[in-house]
From TrEMBL:
Family to which the UniProt record says this protein belongs: Belongs to the TrpB family.
Required co-factors: pyridoxal 5'-phosphate
Reactions accelerated catalytically: (1S,2R)-1-C-(indol-3-yl)glycerol 3-phosphate + L-serine = D-glyceraldehyde 3-phosphate + L-tryptophan + H2O
Gene behind the chain: trpB
Source species of the chain: Nocardia uniformis
Modified positions (N6-(pyridoxal phosphate)lysine) in chain numbering: K113
Enzyme class: lyase
Identification of the protein by name: Tryptophan synthase beta chain
């Protein structure tokens, strides 16, 4: 076992292809359905929203997809990303476990999101798109897409959930720096937004509402398309650079492959990106890790949602997707992990969860912030509130190893830094932060609005 705490790869080891898990699954995921006809959608149904190459990737049965040179050139600004062995955290916990984290916070936007924003902007620019619309919660995805659009000379227009637009102005400014236009959502510029404002002038917004607005504008303008930062197959595909690099890094470190891989799940993309390449190795019989998804107790799609067809947005413009959902009308309590506050989940991961291919647990935010502070004091890096969920679960497992004496190898993705989350950390440190109970009747009410499909 190597003594290094930081395992880096040479630029020449930047992955050349993304890994598509679908051909390796025992059964294919159920198809998305057209919201009006309720028939499986084809490429033409998606053409108003996405460029053809992304539609091809969304539906692809090929195991590997080549990463274009123009995308690898931009990836090289921050990739390959480092894998760290958290020796100081291990010592602080007095655990015999060996804890590793793949750090994605060194990207321009400070998270894993540019891994997909860059190829999405590239394929759009290559096919003549002039403008991309999108939604953003706390601004992680909006800032990643604004950066990516600036690389290929296309415009970016983002609808930012109202509550974050008001409370988190700094990521909005970052989007402006990279040249994007940012609207608070709900906004008066779209019919979907105006309708909600008429009924609820003080609406704090939600990701589901912001998606409706961005999709509406893309559908109505031929030179404009839409980009989504999580949930879809092509997004998960692009994130597999994380797991591919991590596999090479375990090899370079002379470390055995992890016994457990833990990741936070909002729409599922950083978890999938880390896990899928290891799952490929597991399916081939070369390793046998446990995979554990961690979601917020305030937005528990896997653990308390229903596996059924639902809309991706509030207005019902998007295709119906079979996924673990809390209902498209569900508005989660305002926990600080904005990136995890989505009512649905990746349909691909939802299908795999039903097949029993990984576990899911929930965490309350106070425990997550306590874990993030423990982590920052030991390792130096301040985690975003989203990966703090994964860190809380890693610390649980490491403590379990302390009791049993097991020398497990644990791996997680530290998928973003928390430098734009100082208000949340301040609230935690000053004792003002609380936890939320999510009563079952709130979930039941939102689930009652699900479309009636088998
Ligand atoms: C967006 C975001 C998430 C949640 O999205 P996933 O698709 O589940 O990865 C988690 N962490 C960070 C830092 C994010 O920006």
């Amino acid at each position: 076992m190597s003594g290094r705490s930081k395992i880096t790869l040479d630029e020449s080891e930047l992955p050349r292809r993304w890994y598509n898990v679908i051909p390796d699954l025992p059964a294919p995921p159920p198809p998305p359905l057209h919201p009006a006809t309720r028939q499986p959608i084809g490429p033409d149904d998606l053409a108003p929203l996405f460029p053809m190459e992304l539609i091809r990737q969304e539906m692809s049965g090929e195991r590997y997809i080549e990463i274009p040179d123009e995308v690898r050139d931009v990836y090289r600004l921050w990739r390959p990303t480092p894998l760290f062995r958290a020796r100081r955290l291990e010592r602080a916990l007095r655990t015999p476990a060996r804890i590793y984290y793949k750090y994605e916070g060194g990207s321009p936007a400070g998270s894993h999101k540019p891994n997909t924003a860059v190829p999405q902007a590239f394929y759009n620019a290559a096919e003549g798109t002039r403008r991309l619309t999108t939604e953003t919660g706390a601004g992680q995805w909006g800032s990643a897409l604004a950066f990516a659009c600036a690389q290929y000379g296309i415009d970016c227009e983002a609808w930012m959930v109202r509550a974050s637009y008001d409370q988190k102005p700094h990521r909005r400014t970052l989007m402006h720096v990279w040249g994007a236009t940012v609207h608070p959502s709900p906004s008066a510029v779209t019919a979907a937004g105006a309708k909600i404002l008429a009924d609820h002038p003080d609406s704090p917004g939600s990701l589901g509402i912001a998606i409706s607005e961005a999709v509406e504008v893309a559908a109505e303008n031929p030179d404009t398309k839409y980009a989504l930062g999580s949930v879809l197959n092509h997004v998960l595909l692009h994130q597999t650079v994380i797991g591919e690099e991590a596999l090479a890094q375990f090899d370079a470190a002379g470390e055995r492959l992890p016994d457990m891989i833990i990741g936070c799940t909002g729409g599922g993309s950083n978890f999938a990106g880390l896990v899928f390449p290891f799952l490929r190795e597991k399916l081939a019989g070369r390793t046998d890790p446990v995979f554990r998804a961690v979601e917020p107790a305030a937005c528990p799609s896997f653990t308390r949602g229903r596996y059924g067809y639902d809309h991706g947005d509030t207005a019902g413009f998007t295709p119906l997707m079979k996924m673990h959902t809390l209902g498209h009308d569900f508005i989660p309590d305002p926990v600080h992990a904005g990136g995890l506050r989505y009512h649905g989940m990746s349909p691909l991961l939802s299908h795999m969860y039903e097949l029993g291919m990984f576990e899911a647990v929930t965490k309350n935010q106070l425990e997550c912030f306590a874990s993030a502070v423990t982590f920052a004091r030991a390792e130096g890096i301040l985690p975003a509130p989203e990966p703090a969920h994964a860190i809380a679960a890693v610390i649980d497992e490491a403590r379990h190893c302390t009791e049993t004496g097991e020398e497990k190898v644990l791996l997680t993705a530290l998928c973003g830094h928390g430098h734009f989350d100082m208000t949340a950390y301040e609230r935690y440190l000053s004792g003002e932060m609380g936890d939320f109970e999510l009563p079952q009747d709130r979930i039941d009410t939102a689930l009652a609005g699900l479309p009636d499909i088998g």
